[in-house]
Design brief:
This protein has a single domain, classed as ABC transporter involved in vitamin B12 uptake, BtuC, CATH 1.10.3470. It contains 14 helices and 2 strands, in the order H-H-H-H-H-E-H-E-H-H-H-H-H-H-H-H. The termini are far apart.
Amino acid sequence: MMQTAVALGWWGVPLAIFAGAIRVSTPFLFVSLGEVVTEKSGRINLGLEGVLVMGAMSGYATSYLTGSPWLGVFAAGLVGAALGMLHASVCALPKVNDIAVGIALMLLGTGLAFYLGKPFVAPKAPNLPAIALGGWSAIPQVRAALSINALFFIGLLAAPALKWMLANTGLGLMIRMVGDNAEAARAMGYDVDRVRLLATAFGGFMAGIGGSFLSLYYPGSWNEGLSSGQGITAVALVIFARWNPWTCLFASLLFGGAGALGPALQSVGITEGYYLFNAAPYILTLLIMIITCAPHRTLAGAPGELSITK
C-alpha cells in the first residue's frame, strides 16, 4: 500500500488503512469468534497463540504438498480443533487450571510448529486467491486495495451467524447454560465436559483457520516470526467485545486499522515514531481496557463459570 499512498497523496492514507484493516483483522476475527464460543461454555483458552502458529504451519505445509490452499485452510482448522480438544480434555481433569494449561498449550503449539515447519520455510506454497471488488475503478491502487480474500467474507458472515446461534437455538442455550451454571446444566441432563470439549474444539478450529490466513495470504509465507501475539491479543479482544460475536467483528476491524496505521503513515513520508505507530494495536488494547475498566463493567456479560470470574 506504500505506492498507493504515494500516488494518491494523503487520500492514500485512509485507503491504505482500510485495506490494511481488512487484512490485519482477519486472523483476529476468526480467533476471537472461536474463543467467544469456547468462553461461553465456561472454558478459557490462553493457548490460542500456539494454535494460531500451528495452524499457519500446517496450512502452509498442506498447501505446498497438495497444491490446494483451500485444503491447507481445512487442514489448519483440523489441527486447531485437535489442539482445542487436547486443551479441553486436560482441563476436564480434577484440580486442573485453565490458565496454566493454556500457557502450556501455547508453548507446545509454537514449539511443535517451529520444529515441524523447518522444511517449509524456503518452499513457496500456493496462496489463497483474492476477490477483486475494484473493477469499477480505473486507478490500479484502488483495485489493489479492494482485492479482498474470501476468508474475510466468511468471517463477516460467521459473526452474525454465531450471534444468532447463541441467542436463538437450543445449541446456543445449552452452551450458555453450561458456561453460566454447570450444576444447573448437569441437573438438566447436559454432559458439561462434552459440551466444553466441542466448544473448545470449535474455538481451536477457528483459530487454526485464522493462522492459515497468515501463511497463505498475508503476509503469505511460513516463518517462525509469523505471528506477533495475535492469538493472545484476540482473548483480550473477546473481553473488550463483552463476549458478543457481532461486536468482535467491529473490534477486529478496529485492531486491524490500528495495525495498518504505521505502514500507511510511513508511505507518505512520516517516519518519526514509526515503531510507536507499529505498537498502536497494543497501545489501543491497554487504553480500551483502562477506559472500560470499572467494577461494574469489567466482566459484564462474562459467563459465570469462566476462570477469570472466580
